[in-house]
Amino acid sequence: MSAVDGKDAGTPEQHMTRKPAGARAPGGTHASESVSEHVGESFDDNAGENLGDTVNESVGESHGTNADQPALPRRAASSIQLKGLHKRFGNEVAALDGVDLSIQPGEFFTLLGPSGCGKTTLLRILAGLEALDEGQVVIGGRDVTEVPPHQRSVNTVFQSYALFPHLSVRDNLAFGLKMRGVAPREREARVAEMAEFIKLGSLIDRRVDQLSGGQRQRIALARALVCEPDVLLLDEPLSALDAGLRSQIQIELLRLQKRLGMTFVFVTHDQQEAMVMSDRIAVLDSGSLQQVGSPREIYERPANAFVARFMGHANLFDVTARDDSRSDAIRLTTPLGVLTAQAPGTGSLLLLRPETLDLRRRPASEFERHDVLENHLPGRVQERLYRGSHAEYRVEVAGVSVQVVVNNRGGQLPEVGDQVDVVVAAQDLITLRG
Amino acid sequence: MRRGGFHKGLRGFWWLTLGFLYLPLIVVMLFSFNASNSAASFTGVSLRWYRRLLGNDAILSALGNSLLLAVVSSLLALMIGTLIGYGMYRHRHRKLGWLIVLIYLPIVLPDIVFGISEMTFFVKINELTGLLSPGLATMTIAHVTFQVPFVALIVYSRFVGLDPTLFEAAKDLYATPRQRVQFFMLPTLKPALISGFLLSFTLSLDDFVISFFTAGPESATLPIYIWSAIRKGVTPEINAIATLMMAAVALAALTSLVLSRRRAAS
User: Fold this and answer.
1) Would you kindly state where each structural domain of chain A is located, as residue ranges?
2) Which end of chain B is flanked by fewer CB atoms within 10 Å, N or C?
3) CATH 1.10.10.10 fits A313-432, yes or no
4) Which CATH superfamily does the domain covering A80-153+229-305 fall into?
5) Best residue in A164, A210, A236 to probe B by mutation, most B CBs within 10 Å?
6) What is the pLDDT of residues A205-241, one digit of tens each?
7) In sequence order, which residues have a C-beta less than 8 Å from that of residue A107 and are 6 or more positions away?
8) Best of B93, B167, B173, B262 to disrupt the A interface by mutation (most A CBs within 10 Å)?
9) Domain map of chain B by residue range?
10) Cβ of residue A76 closer than 8 Å to a chain B Cβ
């Protein structure tokens, strides 16, 4: 990442000139027959650098579909360091209350949280649209805390898309380059290249008000990307789209980010979306960070009850006693009964994700038998929601209601009223701080 | 049946209203083309009154004054009103209460009150400093004051109709404050600016009361000329001037309407 360091001291004006037309030529200006070859090369580089440690399965798919698309030249991605951010609006509670965060170059980083948690404020601070009360923002090694938005090499895809209604699609795309003083000839070339890259095709000469939601979304993205910012910020860009289009664009956006290797900071309140797309997620609540980590860490090893509940369905029970006397396992006393765990951590709350539990029908003859099997909790099915691929159960165990999700593998699914054992795997048991 | 009768009645009322509104105007237009100088009978079509107008220096100078006053005052009102409209938009979340009332008051204030107060004001200043003797300058100031609220209102409502994130998008896309005005605000405002100008222009062109109180001996506008000429009786010449003024105002109003329609459609 030495290229990043090289421009640390750069002023915005130097930013413009540090991308000479020649240096960024290959992908855009090559004759079309050589493009696919070039893409193959650049994508392999990309995979080596950026995809190695990612946990996303869907990234792998993008190898195949990528070769037929034109490539944009790649440039070194930028890191972000946020130190001690404080922000308060008027006399209200703090929107940001001491946030420290470090985002790696080329990372797809998501700010996740309920509305009012401060995630949008944080994004606006990165864009320079909101001033800080306290703290420091460093992008690509350069302290931009006091730099106004029009001098930051950062672009935003707004939730409302914010396309200029008085301009055509083409002029919307060219706006940022024009403001930076890029010469008309180069401007046109880069807009055309971006239009091809993002497959805008015939939309380019349309008026903005003639476009559908999905098309606007795409153009808002292209308008930001064509400026080749150090960091791309996305403020809930998919929230206005219907579900089908949304999941399609999620995948496209993810592939695009991997292909460009650009640092993306994405804001959403949808934990599913966050898990599908992100390299890492920061969960925010009431203006402070609750946890930062990969989607699996956040979902499977939540730092506290808030994160556990926010990331998905969670059964949470108090641990009333703990027995560490056995060397291979720890016994936890909970309202459900005594459970054996392998490495549950030291928290006082037990987390059981519904899909880690299983249900076994208990034959009538065994009903009177005391629960001899370890981690088999006897209960009765109260409610079943059949969803085709799986079924969601509510099971009463020792007077407490437990949520269980059972995959439909074609076998028999217990019915309401059945006597069942809720089976807990010892390695899935973890405890959280309250 | 009774319902049908009611609807017929409504239709009749509609034509009656339309007649009251437009028949007098049509009569004036018709008689401006009258060959004879009698207002009692229409003897044939002729353009002689229009030709007479062209030879009348007093009318031509009044017309010149009217146009000069309308153009200059509208341009000034456009500049001031746009700034006020933008200021009102920028600070729309604050409680502007009295400020808004003060800006809109000239719209509802009777012209005669406005005209008299402006006159006393200018006369006093003139007595004290020797500046602002009655003439086109005082008239321009007076006209600008009643045009500004209209422009401010039009500009403000255009801004309010915009997605507020557009302002941020312009910043985010590297536009300096100056570039934001040049490449975002002015182009977006263009329809509002044109209709604001045209509205100011027509308001100025047909204003009589305020012009009358603030005018000087050399600065008679068309309405003032017509008023003084009419004391000697309505001549067909006056009909011709009136017809021309109607045409001018109608043209401006139509242009404004077409532009706002197009804006509403987009």
Assistant:
1) 80-153+229-305, 313-432
2) N
3) no
4) P-loop containing nucleotide triphosphate hydrolases (3.40.50.300)
5) A164
6) 888 888 888 889 989 999 999 999 999 999 999 988 8
7) A77, A263, A264, A279, A280
8) B173
9) 55-265
10) no
> Å from A292 to nearest chain B CA?
27
Prediction pTM value: 0.77
pLDDT tens, B177-223?
999 999 999 999 998 999 899 889 989 988 999 999 999 888 889 89
> Whole-angstrom Cα distance, residue B29 to residue B208?
20
Closest Cα of chain A to B40: distance in Å? 55
* Residue A353 vs residues A295, A314, A324, B251: alpha-carbon distances, Å: 15, 5, 23, 73
Nearest to A334 by CA among A399, A418, A380, A406: A399
Q: Does A291 touch chain B (CB under 8 A)?
A: no
The tokens for A54 are 């990612």
Q: Which residues of B touch A179 (CB under 8 A)?
A: 173-176, 179, 183
Other beta carbons less than 10 A from residue A147's beta carbon: 17
Record: contact A179-B175, CB cut-off 8 A: yes
CB contacts < 8 A (A, B): 69
Q: Is the pLDDT of residue A82 over 70?
A: yes
Could you say which of B173, B176, B266 has the minimum Cβ distance to residue A175?
Answer: B173
Assign 3-state DSSP to chain A and report helix, strand, coil percentages, each to 5. 35, 30, 35
Residue corresponding to tokens 């004001």 = B121
For A329-343, the pLDDT digits (tens) are 888 999 998 888 887
- Residue A129 touches partner B, C-beta closer than 8 Å: yes
DSSP state of B56: -
Beta bridge partners of A378: A421
A168 in contact with chain B, both atoms CB, cutoff 8 A:
no
What does the radius of gyration of chain A's CA atoms come to, in whole angstroms? 26
**List of chain A residues whose C-beta atoms are within 8 Å of the C-beta of residue B170:** 164, 175
- Minimal Cα distance from B169: which residue of A? A162
DSSP class per residue in A420-432:
EEEE--GGG-EEE
Name which of A274, A277, A255, A276 is nearest A47 in CA terms. A255
- DSSP annotation of A362: P
| Pairwise CA distance, residues A16 & A371, whole Å | 72
**Greater pLDDT, A5 or B11:** B11
Selected for mutation to probe chain B from A124, A175, A208, A216 (highest B CB count within 10 Å) is A175
Report the CATH architecture of B55-265.
Orthogonal Bundle (1.10)
CA-based torsion, B108, B111, B112, B113: positive or negative: positive
CA dihedral A40, A41, A46, A51 (to 10 degrees): 60
